[in-house]
Amino acid sequence: MTRWSSPGEPHGGYRGRLRAAVSASAAPHGYTLALWTATAITSSGRGTPDVPDVLALLAGATFAFVALATVAYGGATMPSQRPGRHRPRVWAAFHLPTAACAALISLLLTRACAGPLLWCLVGAATTLVYLLGVSAQYHCFATRGATEWPRDG
Fold this sequence. Notes:
Oligomer: single chain
Number of strands: 0
Strand content: under 5%
């Protein structure tokens, strides 16, 4: 008989390790979905990107991330975050709305501009939409008091 979790096991057994893996993967998974979807929408509207287009996408995404990190931390220093007691519900990591918004913005951008400017804007817009949207989701769930993991029964 396989036990999913046991109070005596480190990390709560397999289920605890699965929770840790899902928690650590939530943000990268959502951002990958958002950026890949936005890139696919842009490619379908404008064709395969050239090297300058890809570099522009990289520059836009990087700039947007650094800009939001600077705003979030009030400067260039980003202190390490240790996992605390705050643990959002699984629904707080549901990234479909942010990925859909990034795709919609990319679709609008493909109709408004082209070339490296388009790809730079897609990278920047996707990063901004994702990070702002996910932080709003986490904030919404945290302020409603839904921050505790359900107890195994």
